[in-house]
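Course assignment 3, question 2. Fill in each field.
Student: A.L.
Task: Predict the tertiary structure for the chain below.
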Amino acid sequence: MTDDSQSARIARLEAMSVHYGEMLERITRAVEENAKFNGTVTSHIELSKRLWDVVENHSKQLADLQTVSAKNCEFCNQSRHVFWWVMGVLSLGLAYVIKYFVENHGR
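Answer field:
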């Protein structure tokens, strides 16, 4: 081989080396950016899982509150029925007492 062909070959190899070095730098930057993006996605997924757990916990608490509320409504309805029953009995008793006094002391 001649010096010119060797020099040309060396020049081509150097140019290829520079080109491959630039490609390697771009690939390295892309991999680093991809790693940052993957880290962001991972943190978002973890946050989503935590939020989902919170939502499920709140759903359970809401179901418990609905159960307690239903029991309270049942108690209030029963209390109202008892109240009106007692009021009816007291009204009849009062009517009897008034009738008794009118019949016996009204003369």
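Instructor remarks: The first helix runs from residue 3 to 105. Helices lie at 3-105.
Grade: pending
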